[in-house]
Amino acid sequence: MRFHLFPTIVLSICATLAGCSPRLTPEQKTLQHQADSLAAAGAIANLDNMEFIIKAESIQIDGGRMHHGTDNSVNFVAVHDGSCIIQLASARNPRPGANGMGGITVEGRIRQTAHSTDKKGNRRYEYSVSGAGVSANMVISLRKDSYSADVRIGGNFHGHDCRMYGPVKPYNKAEIVVGRHL
């Protein structure tokens, strides 16, 4: 009897040390799926109403390395009332940058929009943004049943581009820090 418990005890200790978490029960899986579905429906509504903030969890500039774990209260795209704010900042940058936070903040009006949904249910939102310091095309992709979006911003007058990935939040519920605009 003593030897039959030994493998179970060893496996339990190994799983604990390896950081394995217990498996979700069917009820927990159902609740998680419902929460994800509600968040996805909210993201679609926010994008359709053009009242949203996408706080960047990762950023890629000019096709370079993807930077994960960014400070998403200062790296974001915000759309509200027909205008768009695009902000990039870095606490690691020793210089204050144009926005006073180690980066750049630009604001412009949304001139053109296009929305489409493919056969798989993935959504694509295209915007043309122009204003003082910005003339860019912005494409937001939202996969089916997801609340996190991929944002691609390409400048019209230069070859620089930016890519952000993060959750779509309602404009009035997201906490952000806005720097000085150009």
Question: Could you please describe the fold and organization of this structure?
Answer:
The protein has two helices and ten strands; from the N terminus they run H-H-E-E-E-E-E-E-E-E-E-E. It has a single domain, classed as Lipocalin (Beta Barrel). The mean pLDDT is 82. The protein is globular and about 50 Å long. The protein has 182 residues and is an alpha+beta fold. The chain has an eight-stranded antiparallel barrel with strand order 1-4-5-6-7-8-9-10.
Summarize the structure.
With 182 residues, the chain is of the alpha+beta class. Helix content is 22%, strand content 40%. The longest helix is centred in the first third of the chain and has 24 residues, at 26-49.
Tell me which CATH architecture applies here.
Beta Barrel
Low-confidence stretches are none
> Count the helices. How many?
2
Which percent range describes the beta-strand content?
35-45%
CATH class identity: Mainly Beta
Main β-sheet, spatial strand arrangement: 1-4-5-6-7-8-9-10
Report the C-alpha radius of gyration, rounded: 21 Å
Question: How is the biggest beta sheet arranged?
Answer: 8 strands, antiparallel, barrel
The SSE order reads: HHEEEEEEEEEE
Q: Work out the count of structural domains.
A: 1
Shape: globular
In helices, the fraction of residues equals 10-25%
Query: Under CATH, the topology is which?
Result: Lipocalin
Mean pLDDT figure: 82
**Class from secondary-structure proportions:** alpha+beta
First and last CA, distance: 75 Å
* Number of DSSP strand runs: 10
